[in-house]
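Possible regression after last week's pipeline update?

I re-ran a chain I had predicted before the update to compare outputs. Posting the input and the new output here so someone can diff against the archived version. Not blocking, just want to make sure nothing changed silently.
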Amino acid sequence: MEIRVLKYFLEVANLGTITAAANKLNITQPALSKQIKVLENDLGVKLLDREKKPLRLTNEGIYLAKQAETILNLTEKTILNIKSNDVITGEITIGAAETPLFSIIIAAINTMQNVYPNVTINLVSGSLNDLLDRLNHGLLDFLFALDFNVKGQYDFIDLPQKIRRGAYLNLDHPESNQISMPPNKLLQYPLVISRNPIWKDYLGALTNKTINELNIKMTFNLIGNAILYPKLNSNVMLIGIEGLIESPEIKFIPLDEKTTSTGTIIWNHTPFLSALHEEFIYYLNRQIDDLK
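New output (post-update):
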C-alpha cells in the first residue's frame, strides 16, 4: 500500500466524489479511479460503494479513511523530523494530564523554543488509557502522566514536585470549614471522581470501603466539565489534586496529607532518539536541575 495512493483515497473520502478529488490532485478521473481499484485489490476489500449516488464509503472504506489520516500525519511528521538533523526544527507531540505539575514541562518547552524557534509543540489531552494507546502506536512522542507506576517498558523521567490530593467543595457545603477532610466524611456525601483506577484504589484504601460502597454520582476523564458540578451543587465533593479549579465559589480541602500525587514523563524505549527529542529531554532535565 503506497503512501501516494493512500493520499489519493483520503481525498476521495474527504471530497465525496472521484471527479472533485481528481481535480484537486491534478490528475485525470480515469487514472484516479484505477488507483483506487488497485488499492481495493491490494487490500482485498471494497472501499467505495459506486452504486450509490452520491458516492459512499463502505465500512472498510470508513475505517481506512480514519487510519489513513493518522498514517499520513505520522509520515509527514517523521519526514520533517528526519530532515531536521542539522538545525533543530520539527514538532513534538505530548499527551498531557491536566495538572499544575505540567508547568515544569511548559517551562522546559519555553526555554527550548527560545533557542530553537522552529520547534512546535502539539499538546493532546485525554484519558490515560487513550494516551497510552496513542504513545504505543507512535502517535505521541511523550506522555506526561500522574502517579504512573507501570514504567518497565518505557524510558521515563520522574518530576521532583509533588501535589496534594483533596476535595473541591462549594463554599456552602456543610464541610467547607474543615482544614483537612477526614476520610469518614467521604462516606457521607456524593462524590465526583476520575475514572483513573488509581483514584478508585486510593479512595478505597482511604475509607476502607469498596468503590461500590461509595456514593459516586459522576466520573470523568477530563475535569473541564466536571468542575461545574460542585459550583451548582453544594452537597457534592469533587476529588482531585490541588490547583485544578480556580474559582471564588469553590474551596480545596486536602485529604490524607501523607499521600501526594507525582508526575512522570514517559516515552517509548528506543536507542535511536531524534535530535529533536534528545534536545527536549536535555531541556527538561535542565529545568528539573534548576528546581533542586
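Follow-up from reviewer: compared with the archived run. DSSP finds ten helices and eleven strands in the chain. Marking as no regression found.
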